[in-house]
Write a structure and sequence with these properties.
Length: about 170
């Protein structure tokens, strides 16, 4: 059956040297696009409703918590979030206003360069701990359980796509 929500038929017709995508792969691609468009909004809706936290905010808190000193450069957070520094700065400002993150400007120690770091506060760690059970339950219900035994394979494919996009899996060290 054809999807009327995402009418991609023009993407799958051959018009020149580009190889045509067959009907089965077309349906798989449409399903992937639906997940890419709908899943982040579903995850964010739960986080906002239950914890007044955006998905990006949650990911920033979780990534900071995952570092040895709970601190990253703003540029590393922007890379992790696949966002610009201004967008990342806005997200950090929202977290900082709530007392969940603290920003500090660091001098370049003789190099003349300055950079800003963001550090997870104890209040931010508590907020993350409060948000994690509900978020994890939703991730399990919407992604892990439907994927079943294929979840690891799905993760492997996602990692290859991340690499094909030229994105790092983890921010580089400070």
């Amino acid at each position: 059956p054809r999807s009327t929500l995402f009418p991609y038929t023009t993407l799958f017709r051959s018009s020149g040297p580009t190889k045509r995508i067959d009907e089965d792969r077309q349906q798989d691609w449409i399903a992937i696009v639906k997940v890419l468009l709908v899943l982040p909004a579903a995850l964010e809706a739960q986080l906002l409703r239950d914890n007044d936290l955006t998905l990006l905010g949650y990911m920033i808190l979780a990534r900071l918590d995952d570092t040895p000193d709970a601190t990253l450069r703003m540029s590393q957070i922007a890379t992790m979030a696949n966002g610009s520094l201004p967008r990342t700065s806005q997200a950090i400002s929202r977290l900082e206003d709530r007392g969940w993150v603290r920003r500090t400007v660091i001098s370049g120690r003789g190099q003349g360069r300055r950079f800003t770091i963001a550090s997870l506060t104890e209040a931010g760690r508590a907020q993350l701990a409060q948000a994690t059970p509900g978020h994890t339950a939703l991730v399990r219900r919407l992604v892990i359980e439907p994927a079943g035994d294929q979840f690891s394979a799905l993760g492997s494919v996602a990692q290859r796509i991340v690499e094909a996009l030229g994105l790092p899996m983890r921010p580089t060290a400070n």
